[in-house]
Structure prediction request, 414 residues.
Amino acid sequence: MRHLSVAPSRAWRRATLPAIAALSGLVALVGAAGAAAPTIVTATFNGGPALPVYTGDILVEASATDADADLVTLCIIISELTGPSLTFECIGGPAAASYSHSAAISLEGSYEVTIEARDALSAVTSTTTASFVYDKTPPLTQIDSGPSNPSSSSMATFTFSGSDALSAVSFECAVDAAAFAACTSPTTVGPLGDGPHTFSVRAIDGAGLADPTPASQSWTIVPSTIDTTAPDTSLTSTPAAFTNSNAASFAFTGADNLTATADLTFECSVDGLAFGACTSPASVSGLRSGDHTFAVRAIDAAGNVDATPATYVWTIDTVAPACKVVLNPTRHGGDAVTVDLSATSKDRGGSGVASVVLASIAASDGSASFSGQTIGGTLPQPVTFQGLKGRTFAITYTVTDNAGNVASCDGTLR
Prediction:
């Protein structure tokens, strides 16, 4: 229940609906009663008749009389139409010829106020005196669309919207230093001269409250010449030239003599397919292994298209390379032998071999009877093996292609 401050002129009572019904029991306390029903004499709102809308607190004042001097209650019944709140502000006591009462409404909402007077015989006079809205919060406004900046047109069209919790809104618009005037969305302004301009719009709610911070948009009208200059397009981020990923992402931007970069649009193409609208960054996926081409072109506000799109070619290689260990003995001495270790390699996916390195040498009995090797070294390299008799040596090379695919190959020295 909302809090409603009360300033009664006599002893008063705030009651719920069942309590109001119970007031009929006062007839037994009052005694004899007349036949005339009570009369509601006054019902004022901030000292006057009810208005459709209020933007500040509302003081409801009421008075009633009874010709038989047996008036026992006077109630101000406040119903909040936008919620479940129902409040009774009642004054009551011994039978009297008149009562005066007041109640204050200090919260926003839609209300209906009823004044009810009851005499000792439970004769009731009710008057629905007012329905109104209490609204002290101004609405909000936003511009949804407007001209490009800069623009070569002397006319400009804006769409806008507003919101208020309690009522529908109307709008007032202004251009540059002109006074605000009623308008609707969309609104077209002009013709305007070359140079900077500002459009402002404010929402006004049913209480007449205007948005104190109107929405605004500024733009510049450039000389009315035909723009035939196409924008330039550039790529700012691309995948590696060789990759084993079937997806790729591209970032790009553009520059134009009249159209701001933020107002340029773009079209993209992959592998010569038709250009289609795109935004940066643009991603492609599900590509097959092989060479691919990405192209992007900027389009300015006048419709000029970059005739030399920015392009990028890259290779997708998902096939691991191959290699073969080559053992070339060069010198024997007793049970020792020196071998030029090397490996041949072959790229099978199109990106090319990046490196071939000696990964490991392992003796069959776990001994370290070899010297001169460099694990991770490049080719070729001489290695001297000691005590070859009765032992074998496993040699492993690792080959990596430019796309990052890795393979290994093994050889055995006996």
